[in-house]
Amino acid sequence: MGWLIVLFDLPVTTKRERRLATGFRNDLLDEGYLMLQYSVYAKCAVTLDKKESFIKRLELIGPDTGNIQCIFITDAQWGESIFLHSTRKKSHRSIKNFTNPSEQLQFW
Questions:
Q1: Does residue 51 contact residue 45 with C-beta atoms inside 8 Å?
Q2: The pLDDT of residue 100
């Protein structure tokens, strides 16, 4: 089991490009991806075949402009993630215990 991480940089200069970028983000959410950051999404892939099917689906729903990158990491690597969040002071960051989304997927 692992996680497919989708990172993208899409142009938003024209109205059409903004519409395509927004549509892609909404499609990712509809497909069950978790939004980690505004242009970084992740989805649990139970098998390598599932990962491949997710990538094929991304090829279909991805806009024809910009860059989309997919990275696959194991569940163990995902579990070692460290989440840094900012506090009220902009210059100070602290480490927060990351709640592993895989805990929500216990039925797998």
A1: yes
A2: 56
Q: What is the mean pLDDT of residues 98-102?
A: 55
Query: Under 8 Å CB-to-CB from 45, ≥6 apart: which residues?
Result: 1, 2, 3, 4, 51, 54, 72
User: What is the number of structural domains in the chain?
Assistant: 1
Distances in whole angstroms, Cα of residue 1 to Cα of each of 51, 83, 94: 10, 21, 29
Per residue in 52-79, pLDDT (tens digit) is 999 999 999 999 999 999 999 999 999 8
- Give me the helices (H) in 35-94, please: 48-61, 75-79
Assign 94 to helix, strand or coil: strand
Determine the residue type at 52.
E
- Rounded to two decimals, the pTM is 0.78
In 2-98, beta strands by DSSP E? 2-9, 34-37, 40-45, 67-74, 83-86, 93-96
CATH number of the structural domain spanning residue 15: 3.30.70.240
